[in-house]
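Re-run requested by the PI after the first attempt was lost when the workstation crashed. Everything re-entered from the original request form. Ligand of interest: magnesium ion.
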Amino acid sequence: MKFVDEVRIQVKAGDGGNGCVSFRRERFIPKGGPDGGDGGKGGDVIFQADAQLSTLLDLTYPKQFRTPKGTHGKGKDQTGKNGEDFIIRLPVGTLVRDDQTGEVLQDLLFDGQRFVAAEGGRGGRGNARFATPTRRAPRHAQKGEKGQERALRLELKLLADVGLVGYPNVGKSTLLSRISSARPKIADYPFTTLVPNLGVVVREEHRPFVVADIPGLIEGASKGAGLGLTFLRHVERTRLLIHLLDISGKPSRNPVKDFHALNHELKAYDPSLQEKTQLVALNKVDLPFVREKATDIENQFEKMGHRLYLISGQTGEGVEELIEAVAQVLESISNKKS
Ligand SMILES: Nc1nc2c(ncn2[C@@H]2O[C@H](COP(=O)(O)OP(=O)(O)OP(=O)(O)O)[C@@H](O)[C@H]2O)c(=O)[nH]1
Ligand SMILES: [Mg+2]
């Protein structure tokens, strides 16, 4: 599946129909009163959040969305027809911005939520509406209003509870596939994951939560190295990060240094990411030489005030303990809020 998480589109709502100037003409009534009807309203362009969708791909073509105009009013007090509304379905988690100013216009957060992206113009009033006791034969009617036209930028920010971050190849996708039913691609080379994967973690004793496996980050990502940092927008809304470390690639690898380097990149992207709770885990402890160094590394992290979880996404060792800790942090965060 191609993952598209930002698109620019133009929306133009239909203009209102014009009001009509008309006079009643009936036999034996020489001077009938005004009977020009109102114009119809132009159609709205409406966004609607849909939990079934997970990408903005459908919107990459076409880029322009228009709705029909209202039809003009007619004689015999006939109101014009309203232009039909057009509903564009968007994934839950889509942020709607004005493309020029960047201002956030709406955040579509729940299934079925609607936002009028461009409002159809009101229909003009027909001359029948302008009749007064002293002015019985008004010869004017209103024109329909123009429909709203906007350039918008849509950004999808996944609504995951937990973000899984780490260098490439540390085993993020393997862990996701162990704890959820998601089946992301796993391979022994960096940047296997090119788009974020979501998995739902279901454990009997806890509320289910969503984990996002983010493509690997590397030093300099904030300056565009590797896949860059654009995918970090998907961890902006998470409530907790699992920071995964791995020394198996090179035994000389210093996990403390890796830990700081990655946090530096997170901070460069958005300082508020630093404030999220992180649970730190050393992966692949099923490998003997990783296991050998684990206690030493654990101590180093303890000195820094971090409990280090020792896990193996492959064998499952230590994973349930990590999940339990994640569930507890999530529960304590939501208790604090309510
Ligand atoms: N021995 C061992 N190997 C693992 C473990 N977890 C993952 N691997 C292997 O490490 C390699 C990378 O795993 P992935 O899950 O694709 O890693 P990733 O972090 O998602 O990588 P990117 O998507 O490239 O960032 C694969 O060959 C996995 O089989 C583990 O716990 N133990
Ligand atoms: Mg991966």
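Saved to the shared folder this time. The first helix runs from residue 172 to 179.
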